[in-house]
Amino acid sequence: MLKFDFHFDVPHKGTLQAHGQLEFGTKLAILGPSGCGKSTFLKALAGLSPKRSGESTWLDQNFNQELLNEGVLGFCFQSSPLFSHITVLENLTLPLESLKKYRPLSSELKKQRAQELLLRAGLSDLANRFPHDLSGGEKKRVSLLRSLIFKAPLLILDEPFSDLDEENRRLFKKWLCEILLDHKGVLIFVTHHESDIQDLANLRFDWPSNKETVLDFSKAKKL
Amino acid sequence: MEPLSSQTRKTTDAFLSIFYFTVIWLPLIYTFIYLSLQISSETLTPSFFYLLARSSLFGIFQASLSILLIGAFSFAFGYLNIFYKFNLSSQKAISFIALFLFSLSPTIAALSLLNLGNFFKLSSAQGLSWIVACHFMMNALFVSFLFAKRLERFQSSHSHELIPLLKSLGTSKRKFIHVYLWPIFKNDFFSWAPQIFLWCFSSFAPVLLLSEGPHQSTPEILFYYSILNDRSGARIFCILLLNLFLGFFLNRSFAKPFSIQESFQNNNSLNSQQLQNSKASYFLILMSLFFFLPFLLALLQTTSVISNPKILFFFQELLTPLSTSFSISFCCFLLSFFVGFLCVIAKQDSPLIQYSNILSPPFILFAWLELGIRSENHLTSIFLVSTTSFLSIFPWLYRQIKTQRDQLPTEWGLYCLSLGMTPFTYFRKILFPQHKNTLFKLAGVSSLWAFGEYAFSKVFFEKSETLPLYIDENLRRYNFDASSFGISLAYLGSFLIVFLILKSERSSLC
After folding, report:
1. For position B506, what pLDDT does the model report?
2. What is the pLDDT of residue B483?
3. What sign has the CA pseudo-torsion A9, A13, A18, A22?
4. What SS3 class is residue B419?
């Protein structure tokens, strides 16, 4: 279970307070205008950027290096930051090489797993390409796959379909829905599209107006 | 945020600053105070101040002239690139020559020009024009190449329809220059000119070797001679003060990080169209040959030496200088690589190191000598020269690495943090592979400079013990066979290193 109650700073907006608790099986969609602090909130929630005060916990444990190294968190960033010095396949196997529980696996098995995932997503021809050879949409999809490869119980996706055209968005979302059928953890994603909410979410949180400084996630709407 | 804790980075930063402070600034402060106590009116005569003012003006004048010529050449190169459409990505030889000349040790460049002048029996193979020619030869092609590359990139990424638009409006060439080429050039000029100006102003070996006499010296040369000959504390103090002031002023007002990375990068976004204009191709080849003239001459002279029975003698004679220069170069490479490695971890620009590029070789030399550091044997001399030449290059190296480090996306660090990566894994998997090539290249360039080190060698080694000293000695004795043979070998050593650097770049892109 994900519990949080903390204050965090949003550049040019001030300090906001967020609190709530998300049970296993929750698929929360966050909607809000650009620049309101959604990405900052997600990073602070996962312990990736500093909080002003308070804390967020996963199964009553703080997000620290030890917990994260167990493969608890799959984070897909808005800007798809793929490492430019390695291929797509190596970008996908990197989490498996870094996380504690996957380290004992042979590199062949790790590669195989990455290739299978690419194949399922219909991106197997990208395996040996470098990020600078990919289009924005391809980068986004690879970045998304990278956050899914180790089946993290907490998935945070920051605008996962933002750079995709309509056709790819539809196909990739369908594929993601299939993947997420098995996902029993917590999914949080940011979107600007109502259709994404209908397809993926079971809880919806609308970012409050500028005047409000409290984000009360217990008020999120069930779908 | 990133897996490398802020504490680790701060500690590395502090270590680098302490290292630099201990070996450079502390001896300097000590000698500064020590010298200030020796000020007396006896040695500080009006004629000395006149000399000081003249050398400062000469330094500024020769640097400004060099910048103007390099700028004009670079603009003309850009103009040709636009109107005659030669594609630079297909001109590997030119990129090689440009980078080679830029990375070449200034001493070797100055010595080869001296050789050229002597060979053609020019009455004055020394003087302002030769100093400027040396700066021009080393920088012009490189800077122009960078400018032309930026123009190509600009066209391919931002304005591939801008030129057709201007043409469709029937824009004249003059107008075209005014609205298109000149604004881009102006922007580009300010990114490299301050750094090159500082470089020319503090250029040491070319001025030392190519000036006609004391009336053509810079404050640094004056300083160098004062350390070695004059030994007047008050005078040394005044020159040091002026140098520090000028260096600090120029550095604070103008210096910007000037990246040599671009010259190495193959621009994948460019169209791989072949050379479109054969005349432009011939022009480029001829121009490169012109820049290569001193080397070609030395090579020609060497071929005549090869048939000479003296060749074995030369080889024997050159064995020690060559091995010493290579050892210095190798030590400098290792030092640069290791400290560069630490710079990758360090947190932010340390003002202590940032402003240290006002400290050119004579300052470091002076501080070390004042502390009583002397060479006792050959190995110590190698260590001392490689360390001091590394220290004089270090601020530049530091800036290049910091610039690249700061350009890494912050999300990379955040992503690694989300995986709970240890600092060591983050460094091994991400930071080091990202900077490996840059470290290798910069250490290569540092080692090239150390290979042609002159000022320190002159102090710590006997006559002819390093390659530049050997060349210089033979040039002074009008023994051109030996000197040209030495120059060719020096060039070939540099050639090899630049070749390896470029090869590593290409293989890393494959």
Report:
1. 52
2. 77
3. negative
4. coil
Q: Please tell me which residue, B457 or B308, carries the higher pLDDT value.
A: B457
Task: Name every residue whose Cβ is closer than 8 Å to that of residue B506 and which is 6 or more positions away in sequence.
Answer: B266
Contact indicator for B405, B430 with CB cutoff of 8 Å: no
Contact call for A98 and B416, based on CB within 8 A: yes
* Residue range B255-303, pLDDT digits in tens: 555 555 554 454 443 333 444 555 666 676 777 777 778 887 877 777 7
Contact indicator for B339, B16 with CB cutoff of 8 Å: yes
Local confidence band at B68 (pLDDT 50, 70, 90 cut-offs): very high
**Terminal Cα distance for chain B, rounded:** 32
Give contacts of B 259-278 with A, CB under 8 A.
Answer: 268
Q: Are strands A221-222 and A61-62 parallel, antiparallel or unpaired?
A: unpaired
Distance from the Cα of B330 to chain A's closest Cα (Å) equals 27
Q: Quick check: helix, strand or coil at residue B286?
A: helix
Amino acid, res. B483: S
3-state secondary structure B161-228: CHHHHHHHCCCCHHHHHHHHHHHHHHHHHHHHHHHHHHHHHCCCHHHHHHCCCHHHCCHHHHHHHHHH
Average pLDDT of span B158-168: 64
CB burial of residue A3 (10 Å; 0-12, 13-18, 19+): middle
Distance, in Å, from the CA atom of A75 to the CA atom of A147, rounded to the nearest integer, reads 6
User: Which residues on chain A are in Cβ contact (under 8 Å) with B419?
Assistant: 68-69, 71, 73, 94-95, 98-99
ipTM: 0.88
A220: left (phi over 0), alpha (psi -120 to 50) or beta: beta
Q: Phi/psi zone of residue B169: left (φ > 0), alpha (ψ -120 to 50 degrees), beta? A: alpha
Q: What angle do CA B395, B401, B407 make, to 5 degrees?
A: 135
Between vectors from CA B334 to CA B329 and to CA B338, what angle results, nearest 5°? 145
DSSP letter for B461, please.
S
pLDDT confidence of residue B327: 92
B460 HSE (CA, 13 A, CB side) = 31
